[in-house]
Specification:
single chain; 18 helices; alpha+beta; Aminoglycoside 3'-phosphotransferase, Chain: A, domain 2; 524 residues; 4-stranded antiparallel beta sheet; 2 domains
């Protein structure tokens, strides 16, 4: 018989705080894929999954449909997953019609290293911990579970944490107990239904267990599951990118973001991966083989990339009305958005504009610097085909196929899906040459504010420094304005400062202000 596995995901995951503001807790990333992926992939290839949906349940369904189209999922919508009457037991009872056979119960915040036992008898899972007080515990003797105790009842030496994993062969007895248990069963969850089974023989299996349901435990799980050579992805609360087998799945809580990304994939299809699936909050494509440019780059390859981009950055012919609209988009995108993002930075981190020196250099306020920017000149952009987030981490090089692939393209430029400012792509490329995502992810930077002074520093790769010099020369040779590119790069740092974490956000703010000050000090 095909194994059925019940994974309830309906709960709000409140212990994880802001991590579940935009995602279900089963989708929180570990090793660049959701916790749920690790669980799915540990089960037999022909296993069928009964998934209880509640908080952000549509996202769980979308992800599973995109990432595992060959797997069988039975989705159960739980109508009461928070507030009075809700609880794990209630969610389980909603799944009962689909679990009228032996099944495995697996909590969505439980990861184990070992293979799951066969369903040839009832079994429960436990792990070893020094402190038992925080857990329900199993009394274990001779490989058999004797009792399932509430928190605080376990005794060292004879009791071990129960980890939210069980094989239930006597499903009828389990469901009879759950149905008869009322509010106690709703609150107690699967543990309530398991206790009557313990009067018979229930095997106890030890596992290497990782809890993902609270921040300290999640951090430990992430450290244990970290994979050497995995992509360095700076986290964002409302976005994620997951690598699941041969599939890559991109998530955003913004519906228009995903819809426009999908439309733009057709617009620039010769340069980006072909999408294999689209849902309201996600799209997927087959994983592209290659190295990110930050790892593959040398000067000849960088020169080759710029030559390749000369075909990509195809200028658009605009009539007068379209050009006026494009320039208005540029002005809004650069000027108004910068003011909004800087204000967001001040609100987010409880700081304000000031005249603090930066790395020993006297500075005016940022507001004064922004008043010096020639916004009309910046708005005179170069309309054409664009990527929108063009830096080395979003560019792959496949040496065997001698091919570049662009990833994580921007969904629009000021609302337009077809025409953007080529200068913005140039500035994004420079921003990634100056700040290495890899080195930032490894913590190779420093930023501090003390009194009237800000000091910052960050490591750079020598090859990227060489590429920056080459890029400056190339820009001038191609007739681009180096000053405009550097001004936009400074504004990019200021714009993204509010979107990242402390202290990286403060580094970005200081770097952006410092760079803008330096550009404005040069003759126009």
């Amino acid at each position: 018989m095909t194994v059925r596995v019940c994974i309830p995901t309906a709960g709000t995951g409140s212990r994880l705080g802001e991590l579940t503001a935009f995602l279900n807790k089963s989708l929180v990333s570990i090793a660049n894929r959701p916790t749920l992926s690790h669980q799915i992939e540990q089960c037999p290839a022909d296993a069928e999954f009964v998934i209880a949906l509640g908080h952000k349940g549509a996202l769980v369904r979308q992800f599973l449909e995109l990432a595992y189209p060959e797997r069988t999922f039975i989705f159960v919508e739980v109508d009461r997953y928070e507030g009075p009457g809700s609880g794990l037991g209630y969610s389980l009872l909603q799944c009962k019609p689909h679990l009228q056979q032996p099944f495995i119960f697996l909590s969505c915040d439980t990861l184990v290293r070992e293979p799951l036992p066969a369903l040839d008898g009832n079994w429960v899972a436990y792990a070893e911990r020094d402190d038992l007080a925080a857990y329900r515990t199993l009394q274990v003797a001779g490989g058999r579970a004797g009792a399932l105790c509430e928190k605080g009842e376990g005794r060292p030496g004879t009791h071990f944490p129960y980890i939210g994993l069980a094989g239930i062969v006597d499903y009828a007895q389990f469901w009879d107990a759950m149905e008869a248990g009322g509010a106690a069963a709703v609150d107690g969850g699967e543990a309530f239904g398991l206790r009557p089974l313990l009067a018979g023989h229930v095997a106890a299996h030890a596992f290497t267990w990782f809890d993902t349901g609270n921040p300290p435990a999640l951090d430990a799980a992430r450290a244990a599951y970290a994979e050497a050579g995995a992509p360095n992805i700076l986290p964002k609360a409302n976005e994620a990118i997951w690598f699941v087998g041969e599939q890559v799945v991109k998530f955003s809580d913004d519906l228009s973001f995903i819809a426009n990304r999908a439309r733009r994939a057709a617009e620039i299809q010769d340069y980006v991966p072909r999408l294999t699936g689209v849902r309201p909050n996600m799209y997927s494509y087959r994983n592209v083989q290659g190295e990110v440019m930050s790892e593959a780059v040398d000067l000849p390859l960088f020169a080759r990339l710029l030559e390749h981009c000369s075909g990509f950055w195809r200028e658009a012919a605009l009539d007068d009305a379209a050009r006026d609209a494009f320039q208005a988009q540029c002005r809004t995108f650069y000027h108004r958005k910068t003011l909004e993002r800087v204000a967001l930075y001040y609100r987010t981190f409880g700081t304000e504009d000031g005249c603090e020196s930066i790395n020993g250099v006297a500075m005016p306020t940022l507001a004064a610097l922004l008043q010096q920017v020639d916004w009309d000149e910046l708005a005179q952009g170069l309309p054409g085909r664009f990527h929108g987030d063009f830096h080395f981490e979003n560019i792959l090089w496949n040496g065997s196929e001698q091919a570049f692939t662009f990833l994580d393209w921007r969904q629009d430029f000021g609302g337009s899906l077809t025409v953007g400012d080529i200068y913005y792509d140039l500035a994004k490329l420079l921003h990634g040459l100056i700040v290495s995502h890899e080195l930032i992810a490894d913590g190779h930077y420093h930023s501090e504010r003390s009194g009237g002074a800000i000091r910052y520093d960050f490591h750079r790769k020598q090859m990227l420094v060489a590429c920056e010099r080459h890029f400056d020369l190339w820009l001038a040779q191609q007739g681009y304005s180096v000053r405009k590119v550097r001004t936009l790069t400074a504004l990019i740092y200021l714009n993204i400062a509010a979107l990242h974490h402390d202290p990286y956000s403060h580094l970005l703010y200081a770097l952006g202000k410092d760079m803008l000050h330096g550009v404005l000090a040069q003759p126009a």
